Amino acid sequence: MSQNRCLDFCIIQAYFWFVTELIILLIVIATALAFDFTNGFHDTGNAMATSIATGALRPKIAVALSATLNLVGAFLSVEVAATVAKGIVDLDRFDLSNAWDSHQLLLVVFAGLIGAIVWNLLTWLLGIPSSSSHALFGGLIGAAIASMGFGGVLWEGVMAKMILPALAAPIVAGLVAAIGTFAVYSLTKSVGDNEKNRYFRWGQIGSASLVSLAHGTNDAQKTMGIIFLSLVATGHIGADATIPFWVKASCALAIAVGTYMGGWRVIRTLGKGLVEIDSPQGMAAEASSAAIILTSSHFGMALSTTHVATGSIMGTGIGRKGSSVRWSVAGRMALAWIITLPASAIVGIFCWWVAHAIGSFTTDLVGVLVAFAILLGLSGYIFARSRKAPIDPNNVNADWDEESNSVAPAASTAPAAPSTPATAAQIEEEVSK
């Protein structure tokens, strides 16, 4: 009788572990897709900001086109996904046949995702085009350090395929875009500005589309790698397996939907705040960005598309005579780039400690749910703050405020209109245009 009771207890305990692990896995996958969504709307400006700023594409058409091409691009390559899945966290430190180690790896992935999402939302609120990729890497690195110490991170892979490309990308992109811009204006100096801009707007549609396609081949794969890592942790697939189709499809769809939402705050900074850009500059920036992103994707480098796009736009300001870069805005971006890795790592460490500490006193599931609740609370707060000064398709191209250099449009200096019914209606009609 006692043996039967012992057997029943073991079955119940095994079932409890299985259900707990499955629920945690589902939460981690949902959080990974949420990160992919934020990556989409945070990085829409990389492809479409200049086309929107020059009028080559209407704002809503631009984000719809970008979303479609991000969706397609996500299926073109998996080299970057492999880098993320196997190039950051040392999987050999975990015995995945042991339920405890599997849960710990899941916790590392989960805490890293929270760090990335929080940083993405914060920089989006401020209109700063920081790197979603580095936010993800920083979150994972912080969580891995909290779990296993510094030995749990594959520093050689991080340096070779993440840090060095991040340092080189904006410089190379800026040089290529500056040379391209100088060549374009030199070759077309006999063409009138209006005619020149009209033809280059058509060219921008093609070059911006290519950047969107390239973005899908690079950024959507990072979330594929994260979900792959989670599936490996729970024993659903082996470490040497290929990425399942459903993972590719769900990540492609998540980043496409996020892109369609339009990260208008970041689009505004890239399109209006960094350089006052014309169509030839926009085409040069987009062509440079696409070439560099596609090359890095081919070699499996988890490059920041934000760094590339921003470097290209700055390069067009340098390459065109009479144009200028707002260096105060550029400096704020550079500062954000420098602190992205450590800031998201700190959030990853904090979330790992919260989930781990609460899980030690209760269960792993409770710890994960508490960390998830923190993420939801912070996300809601940031969204509420964004509604105090909303940026949308109607004001994304408004004049930049030279005094504040913030993402908010310049305050209107027009005199107050009489409050008669006819005048109010006219004002409302004018604003709606």
How would you characterize the overall build of this protein?
It comes from Corynebacterium callunae DSM 20147. One of its GO terms (molecular function) is phosphate transmembrane transporter activity. It is a multi-pass membrane protein. One of its GO terms (cellular component) is membrane. The chain has 433 residues and is an all-alpha fold. The protein has one domain (18-403). It has 14 helices and no strands. Helix 1 runs parallel beside helix 13. It is elongated, with a radius of gyration of 24 Å. Residues 413-433 have low confidence and may be disordered.
The class by helix and strand makeup works out as mainly alpha
Count of spatially separate domains:
1
- β-strand percent reads under 5%
How far is the N terminus from the C terminus?
81 Å
Q: Tally of extended strands? A: 0
Instruction: Please estimate the helix content.
Output: over 70%
Mean pLDDT over the full residue set: 81
What are the secondary-structure elements, in order, as H or E? HHHHHHHHHHHHHH
Query: Which residues form runs of ≥5 with pLDDT under 50?
Result: 413-433
Major sheet summary line: none
Helical segment tally? 14
